[in-house]
Amino acid sequence: MSGFENFQRVTKITEIKNELKEYDFEMKLLKDAESYLAVAGDGEALYIFMILLPYKEEFKILKRHIWRFKTLAYKFKAKPYLVTYNIMTTIYPLHALEDAGKHFILDTEKSKGLMFSFDTIVSKQLQERLTI
């Protein structure tokens, strides 16, 4: 990876962090040699994100990475989502992945109906808190 690509990746991760801060969520990257994972929370809600960068129309993710991701979500009692950044932060649920042998594929064009923004997560979380 070139220095410019790394700079772009860091810039986009910073954009994602800043968007979450607008909703009083803190995000911390987890060290993982094979993928970018982040934990975000506001004290009550906890999410774990697999950050897919640089943005592409189709992401190939090894199944073992998804299993590890789901295991971490279970251990943290966090809700897992896939996150990418093009013009804005876009979030996908895990069921947007398609099975393709030893990979899972996230096709951003096919999954447009499943994508949403972080605002949607926050709104849903606030509704859940108000009904309790």
From TrEMBL:
It comes from the Archaea. This is Uncharacterized protein. It comes from Methanothermobacter tenebrarum.
